[in-house]
Amino acid sequence: MNTDVKFLLVDDLPENLLSLEALLQRDELMLLKARSGDEALELLLQHDVALALIDVQMPGLNGFELAELMRGNERTRRVPIIFVTAGTHTAERRFQGYEAGAVDFIQKPIEPDILRSKAEIFAELYRQRKMISEQRDLLEAQTRALQLADKRKNEFIAVLVHELRNPLAALNGGLKLLSRKPEPAKAEQIQSLMHSQIDHIIRLVDDLLDVSRITQGKLTLAKSEFDLREAVYTAVEMTRQTVDEKGHTVTLSVPEQPCMVFADKVRLTQCVANLLNNAAKYTPNRGLIEVGLELSSNTYRMSVTDNGLGLTPEGSSAIFKMFEQIDEHRDHARGGLGIGLALVKQLMQLHGGDVSVWSNGPGLGSVFTLELPVAGQS
Fold it and tell me: CA 39 from chain center: how many Å?
């Protein structure tokens, strides 16, 4: 039963409350009953009321006094009040009622059709106010989301410009040095550094293209049947230079038997390599990185465990969002744009799988897990 609209009935006589209840009762309406002003105030603290029907003559707090107290409280000051009165009132008495906050008077004996008609008007007004309030809250939430997205976009553009400018400046400097015809050994060293910068630019552009293709629904998977262990081996080799530069020790644990899947080998290798690169970047020198592959139920699990910087619960939920980076990790990002893990998540979801992370907290390392259905199909 939908009882989103509530009316408050206040009368010191039980028979009058029963009479009002009988006239107004319907499925979509909840009727709250109070036999005194004090009881009414308690109910108003607990419930959001669309209309209050209040008897004027009551012992203790009378109807006008109750209305004045309601108008003095922020929670109840906008509740429409209809006074129910047993006799006629002078113009002065009516003015007192309106001044206390009444929107109307109803005379006893009550005309059922008039009461129902007025009650329905206030019920509908309440529904409309509630709908407008919900729409306002939704618009405010959407506005905040757009402002945050705009902020992240601006931050991303700033980082992208910085990350592209650095290798381009290095390439320009390298060309100038080569134009001076240095010794062969020096020229070879400069060319090696230039190739490294070009590789960095290519990786940035490839990631941006992949994000764009996924966003537009244009990225397709080139699926084939292969041994998943091969993707793990290849990813370890791809990231060996980064790992060795920081002196990390990598251990590998995979099943002895083949782990056959029907999936995009290049993309899954890319996902594992991304997690390994992150583990290398965010683990202090001479750290420990464990790479594992196991079969659990009907799912292959590829995990990358490190003893690095770790994550807070907030960081664990944020890092898979596009352009998101953890403030405490920025010094270790080494050219990251905050799109790598978001790309991994989207690639895994295209395979019918997912990626997750677990960390005991800052400084306590992390465990990233890729889950892939054995069939390799969504």
Answer: 41
Amino acid at 17: L
Query: Which one-letter amino acid corresponds to residue 239?
Result: T
Orientation angle between helical segments 112-179 and 184-215, nearest 10 degrees? 160
DSSP helix/strand/coil, 61: coil
Alpha carbons 355 and 346: distance in angstroms, whole number: 9
CA-based nearest residue to 372, from 274, 270, 291, 302: 302
Cis peptide before 109 (omega within 30 of 0): yes
312, 361 Cβ separation under 8 angstroms? yes
Residue 333: which of 293, 280, 255, 267 has the closest Cα? Answer: 280
Pairing relationship of beta strands 260-263 and 299-306 according to DSSP bridges: unpaired
CB-CB contact of 11 with 58 (8 Å): yes
CA dist 172 and 356 (Å) reads 40
Q: Report, as an integer, the average pLDDT of 120-139.
A: 90
Strand 5-10 and strand 51-55: the pairing is parallel
pLDDT at residue 332, rounded to an integer = 45
Q: What is the pLDDT of residue 75?
A: 87
* Distance between CA atoms of residues 81 and 103, nearest Å: 6
Q: Which of 106-115, 118-127, 256-265, 333-342 has the highest mean pLDDT?
A: 256-265
Tell me the residue type at 223.
Answer: K
Tell me: pLDDT of 156 over 70: no
Q: For residues 253 and 88, which has the higher predicted lDDT (pLDDT)?
A: 253
Left, alpha or beta for 363 (phi > 0: left; psi -120 to 50: alpha)?
Answer: left
Global pTM?
Answer: 0.54
- Look up tokens 């990233």; give the residue: 368
Alpha carbon of 106 to those of 58, 62, 112, 165, 217: distances in Å?
Answer: 16, 16, 11, 77, 63
CA dihedral 278, 281, 286, 287 (to 10 degrees): -40
Instruction: Decide: helix, strand or coil at residue 284.
Output: coil
How far, in Å, CA of 94 to CA of 36, rounded? 21
81-85 and 51-55: which strand pairing? Answer: parallel
- Main-chain phi, psi angles of 17, to 5 degrees: -65, -40
Residues in the chain: 378
